[in-house]
Amino acid sequence: MIIFRRMALLLIFAMISGCSEPIDVQPEDAIPLWHLQPNPVLVFMSKSDAPEGELYLLEKDSSITRLTYNDRHENNPALSPDSTKVAFHAGDPLDMLTWEIVVLDLVTGEEIQITDNRVLDGHPDWSPDGSRLVYGSFSDADGNPAGAADIVVISLDGTGFTRLTDSPWEDNDPEWSPDGTKIAFKSTRLTQEHAREEIFVMNADGSQVQRLTTTSSWQSDHDPSWSPDSSTIAFSRFEGERRWTDIANVDILLEHWRELMPWNIYTVDLSGKVEAITDGVGAAGLPVFADDGSGILYLYFEFITDGDRITGADHQLLLFDVLGEDVQPLIPLSDHAPTLEYYDW
Prior knowledge:
- This protein has three helices and 24 strands.
- It has helices at about 10-15, 30-35, 250-255, and strands spanning about 40-45, 55-60, 65, 75-80, 85-90, 100-105, 110-115, 120-125, 130-140, 145-155, 160-165, 170-175, 180-185, 200-205, 210, 220-225, 230-240, 265-270, 275, 285-290, 295-305, 310-320, 325-330, 345.
- The protein starts with 7 loop residues before the first helix and ends with a strand.
- The protein is mainly beta.
- The strands form six sheets. It has a four-stranded antiparallel sheet with strand order 3-2-1-24, with no helix packed on it. A four-stranded antiparallel sheet has the order 4-5-6-7, with no helix packed on it. A four-stranded antiparallel sheet has the order 8-9-10-11, with no helix packed on it.
- Helix content is about 5%, strand content about 40%.
């Protein structure tokens, strides 16, 4: 079975996480910037306290609360529109067929498992009214495990399961537009080549699928995120010299990591106009718009090297000012710098 294709740069540092020292910056240095943001909370996954990964909550007073305590793997957290719940996938870190969609109520602490099957389910996102979830499911039409994901929706009570795509190629990373009319996702349906994803959009009922980005060579687009006005999508693009999935080979990863860079942040509008947000030589990914559209938060990896070999990286949350076009660290998370992965705010 093909492994669940989380973003490649996260797989890179899952292999080397823990090798680096945390950034020695006091959180209060960046508190004013965090306080200015319209988003009330930020949830993220980190392996700081457990090797399989746990979820954490960053609040406006800059306090960090660990949300989960178990031996599951948990990742891809998605905050509900009212920021009172978080959806994520969770399961045995050694058996991805156990990964199910789970919702945690941040007010009551109650946890509800939404799916229950022997199929890899992941990357959930919320409908704007908070009543349904869209996610990638590695299942075929009969509900059996499949080698590629399709986009499905389900109600919070586990009913109303609907398959929106049915393709032999990869459809994944779905994100519901804030106005509720569309869903963005990545797909290999037109490149028809493993590790050559592009960004697509479709109506919320699965109709009128449209390609928004076109890749060349080994470019690959991931993790679309909508602007608040549903007019623009931010995404991360791999621009390396070889297939990004080569990171699964540890020898290639350690000796030829420069060929697996860069990753940069882009935006695309619904007409297909693409603009670059970052233009670096390293790894920037997982862009998420601020609630008021004033900024784009993304994850940046500052590499630690020994000669030509990469030995680790500090994981930093950077905020791009859409109007001023400057970039600042949102807030240093020192204890989590070596292992912070997926997040939402």
